[in-house]
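User: For a reading group we're discussing how well predicted structures match intuition. Take Kelch repeat-containing protein. Before you show the prediction, I'll give you the sequence so everyone sees exactly what went in.
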Amino acid sequence: MVRPSAKLGSAKLVVICVCLLGFVLVADFLWASSSTLASNWTSKDSTSAKIVVPNAGISKENQNERKHAKNEKDAVSGRVLAAAYADLPAPELKWEKRATAPVPRLDGAAIQIKNLLFVFAGYGTIDYVHSHVDIYNFTDNTWGGRFDMPKEMAHSHLGMVTDGRYIYIVTGQYGPQCRGPTAHTFVLDTETKQWQDLPPLPVPRYAPATQLWRGRLHVMGGSKENRHTPGLEHWSLAVKDGKPLEKEWRTEIPIPRGGPHRACVVVDDRLYVIGGQEGDFMAKPGSPIFKCSRRPEVVYTDVYMLDDEMKWQVMPPMPKPNSHIEFAWVVVNNSIVIVGGTTEKHPVTKKMVLNGEVMQFNLNTLKWSVIGKLPYRVKTTLVGFWDGRLYFTSGQRDKGPDDPSPRKVIGEMWRTKLKLNSS
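Assistant: Thanks. Here is the predicted 3D structure of Kelch repeat-containing protein, as structure tokens, for the group to look at:
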């Protein structure tokens, strides 16, 4: 009875030993395998606490394919973000700094008459607006001749145009921050420095496109009274030598796309409206100081021309979306030249992105080109042209070469020799 019992015990012992040996071999194999794979799982940042566990069912080949696809996706994402910041390729220009304006200005207005640049209004800061005119002399590089604006005149977002002596000033925002607009309209005799009233606009507007065309003062688009909703309305008033020939504004064909901050230019008896945006900052509801509050905006490349039959024609679009250019243009040799501005907001940060290019619209070929770079990106520039040189002053510049969002309001004056593209 004993022997059979001993044989059974030794058999159990053998089975147990075999199991233990098998367990050790498997454990050793798994340890070796895990140490090899660990190098593939470890993050490049050794300080990171994030644990990445791969799918054991994915082959090395499939992992490589997924890694390649992820890299491509990241690269595409990077290109999208970079494009929001990117300046268009352009030749370098040699800029020369001139006499700085007496005060910095944002959203001001300017009109050139011969060798003089009349500079109006504008924000000094978001809480302070200017209510006077400064005059820059291109010939001797001096500022002077300051005089006051009428007390009822808007301080920013003005519509403005000249016939060579008289400057017509239409509507705009009255006060700092994001206060309401006024319908008041004026005319300035630049020789006597005397102001006169004109019939008020039917309703107030922010930054409407404004021009003199065929004996009539045209005002169109802009933003409505809430500062954000695009206006499509178009009015005109017959004027001559600084005087209205009518008591009321006449309704004209609406503009195809509304909004503020666009260039409005007449060349060879044709009226062009260029760039602009839909939407703008609004006053924060209930704010006693009408504090500005960000709202969605769409900046566009659209260009329209009003033809002989008073119909709007679509023209070739700008090289990139551009706004805040209502006084950022000059006409030289049948070309419209535009300096700086703003483009679409950054897709992630939603911050405003400034433009740093000089653009040319050749009216002979109906082609756009980028003909130069500015010293920095800047919006609401006030632009002139004298003796073969392009000038700009004022506005709000960028934070630096690597950050195109707006920062400092400036009064600097710059000039460069202008070289146009013939094609």
